[in-house]
Amino acid sequence: xxxxxxxxxxxxxxxxxxxxxxxxxxxxxxxxxxxxxxxxxxxxxxxxxxxxxxxxxxxxxxxxxxxxxxxxxxxxxxxxxxxxxxxxxxxxxxxxxxxxxxxxxxxxxxxxxxxxxxxxxxxxxxxxxxxxxxxxxxxxxxxxxxxxxxxxxxxxxxxxxxxxxxxxxxxxxxxxxxxxxxxxxxxxxxxxxxxxxxxxxxxxxxxxxxxxxxxxxxxxxxxxxxxxxxxxxxxxxxxxxxxxxxxxxxxxxxxxxxxxxxxxxxxxxxxxxxxxxxxxxxxxxxxxxxxxxxxxxxxxxxxxxxxxxxxxxxxxxxxxxxxxxxxxxxxxxxxxxxxxxxxxxxxxxxxxxxxxxxxxxxxxxxxxxxxxxxxxxxxxxxxxxxxxxxxxxxxxxxxxxxxxxxxxxxxxxxxxx
Length: 417
Ligand SMILES: [Zn+2]
Prior knowledge:
Layout: H1 2-13, H2 49-61, E1 66-72, E2 82-83, E3 86-87, H3 88-106, E4 109-113, H4 122-130, H5 132-151, H6 169-184, E5 189-196, E6 213-217, H7 224-241, E7 254-257, E8 272-280, H8 289-310, H9 314-317, H10 342-353, H11 375-387, H12 399-409, H13 413-416
Parallel strand pairs: 1-4, 1-5, 5-8, 6-7
Antiparallel strand pairs: 2-3, 6-8
Helix pairs in contact: 1-3, 3-8, 5-6, 7-8
Zinc ion (ZN) binds at residues 73-74, 80, 88, 194.
C-alpha cells in the first residue's frame, strides 16, 4: 500500500514522537440527554454505539474526526512481561504504531499514542507532572464513590475471573492519569495493547496457553455498552486469523472486567475502552523479527477492520483478501527450516484462508500462524498435496504446490504457467 509507506515515513520523521495529532480540549457533553455533565458519572451512559456512529458519519462531512487514544501497555522502560529477548512493552509499542497508521490513513480518526518504544508522548508526560494532585484527587473521589455505591448495594462488586498483576502505585496513578486525560480530551475510543503471559513458567520455556482475549468494562460502568459492541466486532476479525485464548476464563474471547484500571475501574473512563491481549509472549510467531513484524502488522490490521466493521465501513476499506498476509503469492520454495521465516508464514496464511490450516483434527491453538515449518505445516502440506494429487514434492512446498495454492487465490493461474 502506497499511502501506508508514506505514513510510515511521516511517523518516523517525528522520531520517537508517535504523536499524530492532539485533540482540542473541550467540555464534556452528555451523550443522549444533551445536557452538560462532568466526567466519570455513575449510572449514566457516557458513550453509546449510536453516539459513536453518528460522530463517525459526521467525520466524513466535517473536519471533526473521531478521537482515538492508543495506549501501548506498560511504560517505555518499565513493566510488562518478557520471553528470552522479546519484551512485551516493545511489542505493544510496535503493534500500536501499525494500528495508528491504519487509523490515520482511513481518514475518520485523529490518533494519539500515549508512548512509543523510547519514551512517553511529551503531552502525556507533562500532564502527569503538572496534574499530579488532580489525578490523585480524581482517583480518590472515584474510588470513594465506588465504595459508597457498593456498600449501598447499588453496584455489585464482581470477583476477578482472571488474575491480573496489580500495577504498582505510581504506574497505577499514570494509568488513572491517562483515563483522566482521555476524559478531558473527549476521547471517543481507547485501545490498550498488551501481550499476555502465563505464570508460573520457567524463563526459557514457553507456557501452557496461547491466543488472544479482549477485556471490556464491566456492564455497570458508564462506558460498557459501546466498549462491548466494539470488542465484539474486533473479536470477529481477530478470530478469523488468530486463536482465542485457551486460558480458562479467557476462552470466551471477551471478558468483562471491573478492576482493570486501563478500561475504567471505578468508572474512570468516559469513552469506549477495550484492552486487547493479542497473544502470549512466548508464542512462536513473536520470536523471529521478520515474522513477528508481519504478525504484529496483521494483528493491527484486523483490529482496524474490526473498528471499520463497527462503523459499517468495511466495504470502503477492505480489499478482496481482508488480510495483509494475502493473497498468497509465494515465489520461493518452502522447506523445513529451524528458524521461522516469512515464506512459511505466507504459506500458512494462504492455507488458512482456503481452509487447509490448521490441518484436520488440530485447532488454531495447536497450530497458530507461526512461520515455523513444524508438524502443523507438515501435516497440512501433506493433506493439501493429497487433495490436489501433487506428487514428488513430499515434505516441501515446491512449484506444483505453490501453483495450486496460488490458483485458489487467482483462478487460472495454474493454466498460465
Ligand atoms: Zn501487559
